[in-house]
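Hi F.,

I've been meaning to write this up properly since the lab meeting, where we talked about keeping a consistent format for the predictions we share between groups. The idea is simple: the sequence comes first, exactly as it goes in, then the structure tokens exactly as they come out, then a line or two of notes. No screenshots and no reformatting. I'm using this chain as the first example so we have something concrete to point to.
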Amino acid sequence: MDLMRSLPLGLYLEQPVTWLHRLDSRVKLGWLLAFLLMPVLASGVARLGLVALLVLLTVGAGIPWRVWRQQLVWLLLVGFFATLLTALSPDGYGLKYQPRSPADLNWSSLNSSNAQDPASGSAPVGQAIASESLVLPQPTQYRYWLVQQGWLKVSRRSLGLGVRVGTLVFILIYSTTLFLLTTAPEEIAAGLESLMAPLGRLGLPVAEVTLTLTLSLRFIPLVLEEVQNLVRSIRTRAINWRRLGWRGTVKIWLILAERLLENLLMRAEQMATAMQVRGFTTPDRHSLPLSVPRLRARDGVAIGVLLLVAGARLWWGWQP
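Output, unedited:
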């Protein structure tokens, strides 16, 4: 089990360098923010379009299949099961749906009500209607219940909710992962520092925020590495979980959690010591050697496409 390859969360793909790598980090932050905001109050069709757009970006960028294969498949499975479970769940409407065709009318009550009116010389209304054809043409093919077989019931509302939940999970996770996959931590920090530079005049510690973000992004692979080492140590010992029982299993997992916390704290202390040795004291006395981001022609094209996508989303795709 290699978590560094099978679960590339927060990892940066150095090779091959695609056109997504060459875009400015601030432009990619704008795209990420758009993907996080556009699903809000969006219809199911619009969210499916965003999912397709993310997949097309991944394929069009030429990212190797081995990099995003397992993660994309797992996210698609999670989104599918979220859609399925939500569609099979009650839709939340506390209404009792009843058929309204004339065949379901209570003719006995109609006959009894008509029989009480002796002044009327015509035939009872119930008998007059019953003698006629009761098959009424429907104006449309609309059906609220799409599937209704015993306990298996899927309504239009539950299916719409399922599509929205599944696509929302996929968009939020995969857009963030794609951004981290094609953007180096230093570029992210430099882009955020450039965007937050005006806030520095208001007293916001921009340098500290940038440094904290850089360290957190660098710390994610270390966490995955520690988890991977603990999993491998458990597998090499060939523990018989059935003989241990649930108490022994819980005890071992608590020991592993404690060991993981100790290892992560040790790694954090090592990073702090390395920073102190290299002269990191305070942001006022030490500046981060980050490259200054610059906009190029391809960044202008990406901004134009982003404006078109955002305009299309504002004009179309609202939740009905």
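Notes:
Residues 120-134 have pLDDT under 50 and may be disordered.
The chain has twelve helices and two strands.

If this format works for you, I'll send the rest the same way.

G.
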